[in-house]
Amino acid sequence: MPDNSRTLTIALSKGRILDDTLPLLEHANLVPKEDVRKTRKLMVDGPTINGTMVRFLIIRAADVCTYVERGAADIGISGRDLLLEHRPHVYEPLDLKIGVCRLCVCGPKELVEKGAPKEGSRIRIATKYDYLAEQHFLKLSVQAEIIHLYGSMELAPLVGMAERIIDVVETGNTLRANGLVEETTMFDISSRLIVNPASFATKKALIQPIIENLREAVDRNSAS
Ligand code: PRT
Ligand code: MG
After folding, report:
1. Which residue segment(s) compose the domain that 174 sits in?
2. 15 C-alpha to center of ligand 2: Å?
3. What pLDDT score was predicted for residue 17?
4. SS3 (DSSP) at 181
5. What are phi and psi of 63, to 5 degrees?
6. Which among 189, 190, 175 has a CA at the least distance from the CA of 106?
7. Which numbered atom of ligand 1 lies nearest the CA of 150?
């Protein structure tokens, strides 16, 4: 096993929130030594802080919480949608207020106008949020068949594979382009800083100031 006591590992997702993440990290003096948007390396060195080497993992958004929960990364940045879906055992000390969107039930306009699915009815839901979908329709006593997709959920109703989708919506442009509308907003979403609980206990002197610096950067973003 590598000695992780003198390193601090930060898991970042390589997708859409990376561009908004980097300026926040910079405010906390956490600057990768290479351009993480361009490199094909999955692990990139960062600065050394009080003798501890920082390194970054550049991974799929949905994998960040797995690395942090298992202690392969000490801290990470993950969308709240993924945290609600996967429910990792991690601390969530800070809302970074980036990647803002909402998790919604959506469907074809004509269908949504007829009203929400009735108690006891059966519907097919295309989503990558299987757990959240199941919970949502369980509460409504609607029998939901969950069809797991990995992306482009908006297509499923167009080809008659599902009556509704559950997905994140930002501007609503993708929905509109595909003749879909929002039916219900389930959760407001933004990206969160997450911390492995054991790391927080053993590396608190290092992690606490990082949280405070990031908090300052978030407040500065909100003010501007
Ligand atoms: O890329 P990968 O397949 O690994 O996964 P991913 O596509 O989920 O990751 P990524 O990096 O694209 O998204 C990471 C996180 O960004 C998500 O977990 C959310 O917390 C957040 N986020 C914010 C979004 C959006 N906004 C967003 N608009 N994630 C996805 N979208 C997609 C959405 O799925 C839909 O297809 O954009 C489309 C809707 O956008 P609008 O603007 O047309 O409404
Ligand atoms: Mg993506």
Report:
1. 101-189
2. 6
3. 95
4. strand
5. -90, -15
6. 175
7. 3
In a shared domain, residues 95 and 120: no
**Residue 69, pLDDT above cutoff 80:** yes
Q: What percent of the chain has pLDDT over 70?
A: 99
Same domain, 95 and 141: no
pLDDT at 224: 83
Say if residue 91 is in the same domain as residue 198. Answer: yes
- Residues 95 and 12 grouped into a single domain: yes
Quote the pLDDT of residue 148.
Answer: 98
What is the rounded CA–CA span in Å between residue 186 and residue 223?
A: 28
SS3 state of residue 198: helix
Task: Check whether 177 has a pLDDT greater than 60.
Answer: yes
Which CATH number fits the domain that encloses residue 135? 3.40.190.10
User: Considering its fold, how many domains does the chain have in total?
Assistant: 2
Q: Which ligand is nearest to the CA of 168?
A: 1
pLDDT band at 43 (very low <50, low <70, confident <90, very high): very high
Between CA 190 and CA 161 the distance in angstroms is: 29
Length of the chain: 224
Ligand 1 pocket, CB under 6 A:
13, 15-17, 60-62, 79, 81-82, 99, 101, 151, 167-174, 189
Q: What is the pLDDT of residue 4?
A: 73
Mean per-residue pLDDT, 36-56: 96
CA distance 15 to 21: 11
